Input
Amino acid sequence: MATLKSAITSILTNPKHSLRIAPLLVLADALLSGLIISKVPYTEIDWKTYMQQIALYQAGERDYTAIKGDTGPLVYPAAHVYVYSFLYELTNQGQDIALGQIIFAGIYIATLIVVMTCYLRAGAPPYLLPLLVLSKRLHSVYMLRLFNDGVAAFFMWLSILLFQGGSLTPAVTVWSFGVGIKMSLLLLAPAVAIIVALAGGLGLAIPLALNAILVQVLLGLPFLQENAIGYLSRAFELTRQFLFEWTVNWRFVTEEVFESYFFSVNLLGIHAILVLAFLATRWIRPSGQELDSFSQQFIRGRAPRFTLSSAYVTTTLLTSIVIGMLCARSLHYQFFAYLAWATPFLLWQANLHPGLIYAIWAVQEGAWNVFPSTITSSVAVVACLAAPVVMLLVNDNSLHGPQDEAEETLKTK
Output
């Protein structure tokens, strides 16, 4: 009995077994995705509007303020237009929705493969992997709704994979392209900045920052030439007014509070405080220095370059986006594309017991599947977002966290 227990424990916890389990899970999920498409009715939300907007673009319209659909104006950056123009052509001007679903199933599986590769490189244990294929809401976002968040999430995880490998220029380029699909990926910017600062120094940070900006300029060039202010105000609208009826995360506050300027400013302040807290106490650790001393060296171009492990890179980037979602003005259901695969990894990095990781995952999944959101479900959404953020911030003895990364890095210097 003891031998059997030891064998089971090894299978569940030894990262070496992940290489055997991951392909089986991907195959099973591909079959499940096909079953979902064939058995579960498609729900129209934004696809028709996307196609109406693309039809105007295809007809030659380049003024962003004039590109609209049934549910409103075009409010995503230019890469969204190019991606959905491609889908517009493939799906007979958006009429072949079944083919669109199959394409999005392919995007989902491709993203899952990248996610699992990131997990394996970071040494994640096998027991985390089933959580990557069990989300009902995530399958819905990709295959039953065809949201652009699924496409943006692919580029987010691809950039994480490239950052893990130390390929900074391709990683920043891919990340910036993802921002060009949906502005939500700007939430990764603080983590991208510190990773570039640590791994590339000032000499590489400046060219990479210019590279990220240039990607946006090139993507938006046709629209910038036509109406620059119109494009920037629509594609990167930071003052958008969200409707209380659609919020997933703040249902438990009153509508008056939700719409208030005070609430918005306080969320922004909390966001800034959390980013600074992680920057000063967690993200800076591979340097072995305090934030102020590293900053001085970095500005003078004297900061050494550090080799960052996959665990550190993944933790830092995922923490950054989860902090942003925790403090977001409003979350909608499609935003789960950025969260679903991040939560198990961050909870593991916080050194939580596997049973607790599964429990938090289940509560989060249940809360995101409540429609419309309720006071209870929204409390659960915020609590599950806060859990990894708080635990990573207060747990100074994580077995797999940034502290160990710092110690390992310093030992090699």
Notes: Residues 15-411 form one domain. The chain has one domain: 15-411. Residues 398-413 have pLDDT under 50 and may be disordered.
